[in-house]
Write a structure and sequence with these properties.
Blueprint: H1 5-24, H2 26-30, H3 33-48, E1 54-57, H4 63-70, E2 75-79, H5 82-91, E3 96-99, E4 112-118, H6 129-139, E5 140-151, E6 155-162, E7 166-174, H7 177-186, E8 190-196, E9 205-211
Parallel strand pairs: 1-2, 1-4, 2-3, 4-5
Antiparallel strand pairs: 5-9, 6-7, 8-9
The structure holds S-adenosylmethionine.
S-adenosylmethionine binds at residues 7, 10, 14, 25, 57-60, 64, 78-81, 84, 101-103, 118-120, 123.
């Protein structure tokens, strides 16, 4: 099957910026107590529901995967970009990382206790999002949790430069949390909580937690 253009563009773009991204972005998580609070709540819920394995989908350089590991979870990372996976594996040799796409996860039905997709659904076009949510629902065990981080808004932006002015060519989608919640619900997930930063933040952010019944 021919690969959709958006997947190819995303892979090529993140392969190009991977080194700079790995230097610039991971400290942002360390410096943000709100993000860590959602990841901490997610970790507690996954442990309470049986402590199944957790996939960090769109893991980039693997800092969130490593943070989940530090919270006691059995976490592994999946990313579309081989360069990102390579950096993640070198930086965190004790953890497991693999290339793959969230649109067709190479995981068995009900295999996971949790999924984190931290600023990775932002590159999925609207027509492909239902497939992604149905994949998330398929691979979660009953009682498993999903945690999403994404930019709030209602627009598509073309990104042509980034992470030290390197060339990129991909789309970024800012989304209304209610629309994301509706897609999760339609896929059979039950939305548990949404945390929003204030609208006057430079880029408003949402963190959405859902559970497979
Ligand atoms: C903005 S970065 C976020 C990386 C990391 N989660 C973080 O918080 O820093 C987006 C990541 O999602 C990955 N990605 C985008 N689309 C993907 C897909 N369809 N399947 C898997 N990974 C994807 C990209 O390769 C990139 O590493």
């Amino acid at each position: 099957m021919t690969e959709p253009t958006y997947l190819r563009e995303t892979r090529v773009s993140y392969d190009t910026v991977a080194d700079n991204y790995a230097e610039l972005v991971p400290p942002l998580l360390v410096g943000d107590p709100l993000m860590r609070s959602m990841l901490g709540a997610f970790a507690e819920l996954v442990r309470a529901a049986g402590d199944g394995p957790v996939a960090d989908v769109g893991c980039g350089p693997g800092h969130v995967t490593a943070h989940l590991d530090s919270l006691g979870l059995t976490a592994f990372g999946i990313d579309l970009s081989p360069a990102m996976v390579d950096i993640a594996q070198r930086t965190h040799p004790g953890l497991r990382f693999a290339t793959g796409t969230m649109t067709a996860l190479e995981l068995a039905d009900g295999e996971l206790g949790g999924i984190v997709a931290w600023y990775s659904i932002i590159h999925i076009p609207p027509e492909a999002l239902p497939t992604v949510f149905s994949e998330f629902h398929r691979v979660l065990a009953p009682g498993g949790h999903l945690l999403l981080g994404f930019h709030v808004g209602d627009e598509k932006r073309r990104k042509t430069k980034g992470y030290g002015d390197l060339d990129m060519a991909l789309d970024v989608y800012w989304r209304p949390p209610a629309r994301v919640a509706e897609l999760a619900t339609r896929a059979g997930l039950s939305v548990q909580a949404t945390m929003l930063t204030e609208p006057d933040a430079r880029v408003p952010q949402a963190f959405l937690l859902a559970r497979k019944p």
